[in-house]
Amino acid sequence: MPELPAGSWWEWDVVSSAPELFVLGADFDLSYHHGLELRFHRPVFVQCPEYFLDPVFRAATAAEAERVAGAVGAVGGWPEVVVAFDCNVGEAAPAAGLVAARRLEVVAGVVFRYWRAHLEPGQRRAPWVRPPGE
User: Fold this and answer.
1) Which of 42, 41, 39, 45 is CA-nearest to residue 73?
2) Stretch 87-107: mean pLDDT, rounded?
3) Is the pTM of this model over 0.85?
């Protein structure tokens, strides 16, 4: 399970779902920025809501491990990281997420979701943010 730095990581969403890198962003409010990223390198299995709240990370169940094993059979080699979680997606029952990847990187730092010309050291813009007029 990922070790998260101290913070209010209540609101989460999928920042990137590229084949080589699956990224979840989190903060207390995702309107303008996120302050935490879970970067799953070379994912082999992803079952995750696009947007969710208050995840509780846990060990994968036997059934979840079996789903990952089925996916891994196609690509070969058991992934180094299997992350399971239960979360709120605004429905009565909680949703479950499951991500298996070759490596997990936990990155803290402000990532702005809007154009900002002058960034301080350690700050970034989200990959989809472009300068005005571009």
Assistant:
1) 45
2) 91
3) yes
Phi-psi sector, 67: left (phi>0), alpha (psi -120 to 50), beta = alpha
- Classify residue 95 as exposed, middle or buried by CB count within 10 Å of its CB (0-12, 13-18, 19+): middle
Distance separating alpha carbons of residues 9 and 24, to the nearest angstrom: 11
Mean pLDDT value across the chain: 91
Domain ranges of the chain: 11-125
> Going by C-beta distance under 8 Å and a sequence separation of 6 or more, which residues neighbour residue 112?
32, 33, 119, 123, 124, 125, 126, 129
Please state which of the ranges 41-45, 54-58, 129-133 shows the lowest mean pLDDT. Answer: 129-133
At 41, which helix (H) or strand (E)? strand 33-47
DSSP state of 28: S
Cα–Cα nearest to 105, from 16, 11, 8, 10: 16
Residue 107's nearest CA partner among 130, 128, 123, 84 is: 123
